[in-house]
Design a protein that fits this description.
Layout (H helix, E strand, L loop, with lengths): L3 H28 L1 H7 L5 H4 L3 H25 L4 H24 L8 H19 L7 H26 L15 H6 L14 H19 L1
Helix pairs in contact: 1-4, 1-6, 4-5, 4-7, 5-6, 5-7
Amino acid sequence: MVPSAVTWGLLAAWAVHDVEELATMAGWTRSARPRLEERLPWVPWERLEVSQRHVNVAIGLMGGVMAGASALGARTGGRSPVFQAALLGFGAHGVMHLAQAAVTRGYTPGAVTAPVVVVPFSVWAWRRLRAEGVPVRTGASGWAGLAALPVVLAGVHTAAHALTRPRSPEPEGSPPRSTAATRTAAPSPGTEDAPPHGTAATRTAVAGRRWWFRRGRRS
């Protein structure tokens, strides 16, 4: 029987790894951009800079994907194709982090936990699956699962961008939207110069008209 440390361990290992990315990704994309633009000018680094809000949403969405894959693995004893694809992609993701750090010649988000959590867990989990006699996806099916990794990552970041992008401002020159407050506050035509009802100005005006009326009657 495949232990839960293999199936739910995938979610736990992912959580440890992504805590590092959550804490470093947004700040790293800003601080490292000048150095990376000088070293690798052909890479569109301005498109890769992300906000902390984007990182939070993207990691939350990816957490849902990993939780679902781990649950399928636990239900099927590690035989689920989705679980095995997620496990394979997780290990490849760790190797990719190491490659990124080598290319940029410095730290990249996730480079600390990749060699000590991601890669070791992935190797151990595959060995446990084989030891328990679980059929392992290899060949074309394995490559298909591996190819799904960039598609899933791209979809997660696209969704995060759509959810966190600022609302478009009102077109320049367009009148402000009418609200209940503005409709209530707007004066009626022809009453712009009328004194407010029930105020001292109103009472003074009424008293003045009465005085002129009485004076006219006496004369």
